């Protein structure tokens, strides 16, 4: 069966008008987008959306020590992330903003809102349904823990 949508390779490369059209399209793309637009768009997407989505997918961490302190577990909740602008620290300790023309590779401080809850095992508590050992834990303290902005590192 003959493919009516694609030319055979030999014919395509022999047809100069098709080659000219291809180069016109390629030239238009780079004229409109530039050489690095895809990399910039990808970086912006990562910083503005993907980093937070990764945190949101894993926003709750439960730590339970097996052994001596088996009656407690800790729950860490991760919230909003904050990526600060890159800065340069001078010899006198002052900080100045850093721009791409000053450095090609640099890092910026990354912060995240976090809170920690402690739960205590109370299997005898009448408020705990006795269906699963995980149900035996109740929060230590009655009020919701405050979120704290924590320095994660440089990203």
UniProtKB/TrEMBL annotation:
Q: Which UniProt keywords apply?
A: DNA-directed RNA polymerase, Nucleotidyltransferase, Transcription, Transferase
RNA polymerase beta subunit protrusion domain segment(s): 34-127
Recorded GO cellular component terms are:
DNA-directed RNA polymerase complex
Query: Biological process (GO) annotations?
Result: DNA-templated transcription
One annotated GO molecular function = ribonucleoside binding
Looking up InterPro entries in the UniProt record yields:
DNA-dir_RNA_pol_su2 (IPR015712), RNA_pol_bsu_protrusion (IPR007644)
- EC number(s) on record? 2.7.7.6
What the record says about family reads: Belongs to the RNA polymerase beta chain family.
Annotated PANTHER family: DNA-DIRECTED RNA POLYMERASE I SUBUNIT 2
Which protein are we looking at? DNA-directed RNA polymerase
Source species: Rhizopus delemar
Identify the coding gene: RPB2
